[in-house]
Amino acid sequence: MKLHSNPWLRTAYARLWVRAKSIYGEPLWVAVNIGFPFFTSFSLTMVYRAYGLNSFTGFAILGGVMISFWGNVLWSMASQFNWDKQVGLFEIYITSPAPISAILVGMSLGGILGTAPSAAMVAILGWLIFHPPINAIWPAVISVFALTLASLYAMGMALSSLYLAYGREADSVNEALHEPVSLISGVYFPSTGGFSPFPLAVQAGASLIPLTLGMDALRRTLFFGQGFGELYLDLELLALAVMGVVLLFASSKALKFLENKGRRTGTIAVRQR
Amino acid sequence: MNRADAEITVQVDGLRREFDSKEGKVVALDGVNLQVRKGEIFGVLGPNGAGKTTMIRILSTLLLPTAGKAGVMGFDVEKEPEKIRAVINMASGAERAGYDFISARGNLWFFSQLYGIPTEEAHRRINELSDMLGLQNYLDRKFYALSTGYKQRVTLVRAFINDPKVVFLDEPTIGLDVMTALSIREYILKQAKEHGRTILLATHNMAEVDAICNRVAIIDKGKILACDTPAALKRSLGAPSLVLEVSPIPAPGSLETIGKLEGVKGFTSSVDEERGLSRIQVVVDGDRTAQSVIDSIRESGMTVVSNWRQQATLEEVFVALVGRGFREREHEAA
To answer: Do B89 and A95 touch (CB under 8 A)?
Structure first.
């Protein structure tokens, strides 16, 4: 079968295109996508410097890069179907023969593609201004980064069905999740292991969030020269891969379940007019 | 399947749909039966809350029936939704669905991809359908920058982008100006006539049904009250109806006696505040009843400013079937 005649690929590509184009359709969003994470990174880099921890300034810049993706997962991935439902797009998806998994994957890839340039800008500006020390094993960095994004966006897919089920409170849930998850997953500082300020129970809970494991593994590979074969890093990579697969499967099942439930209860097409 | 059956594209048998509400069960559809044939524009006419949208949602696989059967192109809505989705499309007049920061053309291309249409073919269809609706010059504008009327045209291009065999349209011209509504009706007519598509049109716009529907089912409180061609339904009333303008504006409930007169099938009234009078349309069985209505109004102390007889409209068919007009029915439901 030719690639271009595959309906799944067509749907995924089209959804990717819409997402990426929408992100860059509004210049203010682009500025916000770069501005907010960079300003936070800038502030925290100054804090690290003030305490003479120059060798850790990279943590804050890496945090700025990854927080762009986390924001995208939360605001443009998890709550997307709920927003689609409000404006009538979700019922268009459901009444079409398009596979919902293709729409989800397209949304994720489009989100990554749309966020990557802003994240790259944060990284470039941070590196140019602060020159953080880097001791990277690049193949490991790239693998960890790819796996982190995969499981993070799979989490976004799973959350999208949850938000769909709970409807209009999505924005408040986003507000409630954004900062606490950023905190416990250790975006700007190690939140697991010996340097963590959190008790073991919180660390264990935080480890169920792909962002936590991803951040820790990225710090290990980017700043501490760890590569494949390091036991803890390998375990984190394995956990990220398992989380990605499980969340992807769970989201697909949950959406199918919600579609069937919505057809029974009549909630698929309920929207604001 | 015999030859006659092969022409049936939508089949509904004993369809019932209930919804749970705080007050208990609400019956939206109550044993609906209908058949729609290939190439037919079939109207489902009724006031708001009559069950039209529920029926469209069931047929377009968004909702499951509580009881009964519904099928599209021979596929069961309950068991074979995927097969139905491949051959249908739907659009609602209340819908303004599109991605704001993408052009109308981009949005339409995106929707075409949900059906796996090759890009070249998708663009050919977008251009062809947009031409019919006068959308061509607006295709490259961002969706958010389009007026309500043009967004609605985008929605209607979307509804036919996949070359569907059956299209469900829910109030496609609601809230639009007369000229836009006219061009949309022409477009719907062409789609049925030239491409043999079946179109099921839910509306409470009687002029729309009169203008484009081959047949119409009149629905109220989830039940089909009558089903025939618009002309046959109007003919079924027999006598022309009576229209009266009376003054002063009657108090609420004071017209109830009209409905009780022998030979009156129903009536509906509206207020003309500017002229300080009330217009009453009465469906009567003949001249004698018309005269007794006029006498009754005079006896109640009102002045009949003018009165005339007019050929029945679909609203009067509804009034004859229900005893009340659309507006009164919606008011009762509210």
So the answer is: yes
Burial class (CB within 10 angstroms; exposed 0-12, middle 13-18, buried 19+) of A198: middle
Instruction: State the nearest Cα–Cα gap between A32 and chain B, in angstroms.
Output: 16
* Alpha carbon separation from A54 to A196, B36, B124 (Å, rounded): 19, 75, 60
Q: Convert the pLDDT of each residue in B125-166 to its tens digit.
A: 999 999 999 999 999 999 999 998 899 999 999 999 999 999
**In chain A, which residues have their Cβ closer than 8 Å to the Cβ of B19?**
266
**CA atoms of B103 and B130, how far apart (whole Å):** 13
Mean pLDDT of chain B: 91
Q: In what order do the strands lie in the sheet with B303-310?
A: B264-272, B277-284, B241-247, B303-310
Q: Is A12 a member of any domain? A: yes
- Here the ipTM equals 0.85
Of B124, B133, B111, B121, nearest to B188 by C-alpha is B133
Query: CB distance B115–A7 less than 8 Å?
Result: yes
- Asked if residue B125 lies in contact with residue B161, where contact means CB atoms within 8 angstroms, the answer is yes
pLDDT the model gives residue A273: 39
Q: Which residues contact A3 (CB under 8 A, 6 or more apart)?
A: A9
Q: For residue A272, is it within any domain?
A: no
Q: Does residue A106 sit within a domain?
A: yes
Asked if B65 contacts B33 with a C-beta cutoff of 8 angstroms, the reply is no
CB contact under 8 A, B57 and A10: no
Separation CA B279–CA B246 (nearest Å): 6
Nearest residue to B94 (alpha-carbon basis) of B155, B139, B41: B155
B63·A263 Cβ contact <8 A:
yes
**Alpha-carbon distance A6 to nearest alpha carbon in chain B (angstroms):** 7
In angstroms, the CA A153 to CA A160 distance is 10
User: For the whole model, what pTM was predicted?
Assistant: 0.86
Is residue A80, in this structure, part of any structural domain at all?
yes
Euclidean distance between CA atoms A261 and A164, whole angstroms: 11
What are the structural domains, with CATH classification, of chain B?
Answer: 3-234 (3.40.50.300), 236-333 (3.30.70.100)
* Chain B contact for A273 (CB, 8 A cutoff): yes
Task: Domain count for chain A, please give it.
Answer: 1
Q: Which residues of A touch B92 (CB under 8 A)?
A: 88
Residue A90 in contact with residue A81, Cβ under 8 Å? yes
Helix-helix angle A231-265:A210-223, to 10 degrees: 150
Q: Pull the structure tokens for residue A143.
A: 């693998």
B87 touches A: beta carbon within 8 Å: no
Residue A91 sits in which domain range?
3-265
